[in-house]
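Structure first, sequence second, as always.
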């Protein structure tokens, strides 16, 4: 292969399902050792384009060419280029994992839950390199060590559910690198990770790419990640590459309107300015502590369980109409804090919400349940697929306001749907549709409508935009800001996204290992962080001046 010849050359790639073509004449090239980012919103065709190169998309009709320089059967002289789209299945199986490897978006679903991590990595080595089992196991442990997993020998014997999100992603990387591939397809490899883990994994991929001389095709919608990682970027919209070029050039002077739209989708800081008030806070916590029982090792565990303090001596206030942002890594205690605020987790200390206290009795807590509502991270899993839009949004009214007639409930449902930007004019038969008929952003609007229909005082927002594309994320944040202004809502915003906190929060608390390590106005905490942990989170977010 000559220096000027691309390692992977995709020509006029077209992908169709039945009579519908979803990818239209894509042309891409990837040189040896190059890092190319393929960016676009959900539905743009970027993931299906990458997966179709290895014919991993079922029921798809693929045409065009994907020319790849495949080593010969002895792994020596170049036998290519060969067209991956016409390669016999048996030969293609030899390419998958050995020459072109994949890191999937969600390692928990990509890894087999029935086998230890080490066995799954060793299996790849055995299949492609025909080495003895013991040797494959040793190499699997060494690969885990290369990715920075502590105690790799012990972790190799762990099952996927016994590892953290970052460790599972590192195990996926180790598996992908098991046969030292020429090309790595990384499909949103950091989306499910905290900002610090995201930075670590990104740095790890960069180090391994340089040491192994791999070419990387990164599929992502995270523009900050593209700016830091990639050499070139290709922007995809509706199955078409609309712009491509060096990252610095495209980001500095985007030529296509869609590229400009993506780059302009950064959340804007627009929190509701309110005068100081003497009214009591809507949420008030003093010395809040949450403890979980855990087994104790040895004979002592037979007589008394140990305990794990998930939240330790936490105090804060949320005034009416204000937003408190809670940031921290996985395991910092922020989600446990949200559960306690929602009355779903028993706690010690003082906690007042909407003027009341949780008693953990259904009848006594019912008024508070109406005053405090929640919007979850993933709207697809939080909305019942068997209920219509009307049933989903009206469910709370049936519980908390049973005196309403069917016509009154339906009127309230229509009004709140219109308030969040969903109307019959846009979606004929809206009330009788099911969640699967809507996009991710539209489903999150449904989740908001379900919470707002009860006219709550407090919304607990648990990573409300992390599952959304950048453009949809901006729309949802703008909607939340408008609703706060119009309704005087208080938000407890749980997130690991520094940019979202910067856009929404009046005050910020930073949690680490169940404790608050920094607390203050958003501009102060994000603009001049005093604690080293906060400084690390902001640096890892890849965002410059997010508070501006």
């Amino acid at each position: 292969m000559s220096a000027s010849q691309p390692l992977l050359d995709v020509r006029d790639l077209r992908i169709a399902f039945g009579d519908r073509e979803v990818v239209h004449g894509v042309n891409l090239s990837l040189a040896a050792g190059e890092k190319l980012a393929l960016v676009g919103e959900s539905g743009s065709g970027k993931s299906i384009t990458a997966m179709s190169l290895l014919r991993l998309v079922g029921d798809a009709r693929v045409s065009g060419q994907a020319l790849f320089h495949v080593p010969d059967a002895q792994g020596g002289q170049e036998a290519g280029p060969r067209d991956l789209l016409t390669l016999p299945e048996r030969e293609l199986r030899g390419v998958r994992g050995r020459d072109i490897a994949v890191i999937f978006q969600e390692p928990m679903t990509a890894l087999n839950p029935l086998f230890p991590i080490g066995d799954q990595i060793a299996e790849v080595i055995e299949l492609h390199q025909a080495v003895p089992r013991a040797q494959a196991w040793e190499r699997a442990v060494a690969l885990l060590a290369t990715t920075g997993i502590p105690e790799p020998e012990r972790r190799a014997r762990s099952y996927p559910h016994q590892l953290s999100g970052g460790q599972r992603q590192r195990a996926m990387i180790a598996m992908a690198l098991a046969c030292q591939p020429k090309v790595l397809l990384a499909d949103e490899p950091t989306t499910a990770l905290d900002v610090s883990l995201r930075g670590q994994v990104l740095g790890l991929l960069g180090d391994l790419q340089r040491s192994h001389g791999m070419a990387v095709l990164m599929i992502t919608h995270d523009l900050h990640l593209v700016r830091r990682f990639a050499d070139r970027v290709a922007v995809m919209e509706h199955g078409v590459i609309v712009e491509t070029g060096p990252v610095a050039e495209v980001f500095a002077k985007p030529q296509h309107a869609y590229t400009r739209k993506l780059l302009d989708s950064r959340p804007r800081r627009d929190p509701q300015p309110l005068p100081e008030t003497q009214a009591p806070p809507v949420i008030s916590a003093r010395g809040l502590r949450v403890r979980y029982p855990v087994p104790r090792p040895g004979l002592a565990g037979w007589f008394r369980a140990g305990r794990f303090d998930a939240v330790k001596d936490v105090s804060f206030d949320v005034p009416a109409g204000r937003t408190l942002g809670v940031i921290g890594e996985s395991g910092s205690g922020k989600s446990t804090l949200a559960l306690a605020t929602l009355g779903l987790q028993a706690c010690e200390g003082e906690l007042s919400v909407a003027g009341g206290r949780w008693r953990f009795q259904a009848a006594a807590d019912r008024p508070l349940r109406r005053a405090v509502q929640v919007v979850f991270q993933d709207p697809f899993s939080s909305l019942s697929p068997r209920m219509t839009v009307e049933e989903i949004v009206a469910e709370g009214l049936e519980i908390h306001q049973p005196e309403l007639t069917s016509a009154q409930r339906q009127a309230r449902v229509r009004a709140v749907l219109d308030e969040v930007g969903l109307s019959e004019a846009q979606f004929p038969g809206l009330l009788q549709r099911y969640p699967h008929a809507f996009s991710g952003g539209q489903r999150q609007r449904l989740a908001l409508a379900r919470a707002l229909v009860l006219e709550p005082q407090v919304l607990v927002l648990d990573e409300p935009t992390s599952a959304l594309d950048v453009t949809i994320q901006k729309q949802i944040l703008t909607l939340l800001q408008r609703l706060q202004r119009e309704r005087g809502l208080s938000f407890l915003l749980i997130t690991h996204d520094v940019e979202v906190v910067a856009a929404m929060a009046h005050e910020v608390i930073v949690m680490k290992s169940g404790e608050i390590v920094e607390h203050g106005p958003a501009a102060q905490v994000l603009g001049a962080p005093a604690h080293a942990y906060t400084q690390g989170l902001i640096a890892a977010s890849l965002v410059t001046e997010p508070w501006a």
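Margin note: The first strand starts at residue 8 and ends at 17.
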